[in-house]
Amino acid sequence: MQFLEKQPTSRAPAEWFTGDAWWDVIHPAGEPSRMRVNLVRFAPGARTAWHRHVLGQTLHVVSGVALIGTRDGTVLEARPGETVSCPPDEEHWHGAGPDHFMEHLAMWEGTADGTPETVWAEHVTDEQYARPRTRS
Predict the structure, then answer these.
(1) What is the pTM of this model?
(2) Torsion angle of the four alpha carbons 103, 109, 36, 52, in this order, in degrees rounded to the nearest 10
(3) How far, CA to CA in Å, does 88 sit from each of 41, 117, 118, 119?
(4) pLDDT by residue for the chain (136 residues), tens digit each?
(5) How far apart are CA 126 and CA 89, in angstroms?
(6) CA end-to-end span of the chain, whole Å?
(7) Residues 75, 134 contacting (CB under 8 angstroms)
(8) Which residues does residue 77 pair with via DSSP β-bridges, in sequence order?
(9) β-bridge mates for residue 17, sequence order
(10) Residue 110, Cα to own-chain centre: how many angstroms?
């Protein structure tokens, strides 16, 4: 057993995020594990661009209210302690509501063959972000 070296907090890149967001790498993957875990903090209104994970992604809300959107127009609202599973290759986005900070644990796996595990697309528009929210 060993402690993993703590990495410095990094600002999320503008090409992948709208607004201000930061992350801490909790688990960077490393053979034999392919698990990746980041603690991501979003300022009010901040969100990811559209993206998909080849092997899926799990989001666990730590604080605030998370919004998770899908291409069919659904915007889920998840609260602290709730976990949302995004299936493999489903395009989605996630971020904070307009009025409060939000942080979540983002968990996904790297690929065994070295192909990109995350495919990024265009930024989420204000209209897509503002769609009505659902709890189911």
Answers:
(1) 0.94
(2) -40
(3) 23, 10, 10, 11
(4) 888 888 999 999 999 999 999 999 999 877 788 899 999 999 999 999 999 999 999 999 999 999 999 999 999 999 999 999 999 999 999 999 999 999 999 999 988 888 899 999 999 999 999 999 998 6
(5) 23
(6) 40
(7) yes
(8) 67
(9) 48
(10) 15
Tokens of 20: 């201000």
Instruction: Give CA–CA dist 30/36, Å, rounded.
Output: 9
Burial of 49 (0-12, 13-18, 19+ CB in 10 A): middle
Residue type, 38: N
How many residues appear in the chain?
A: 136
CA distances from 23 to 11, 72, 89, 113, 128 (A): 6, 28, 23, 26, 24
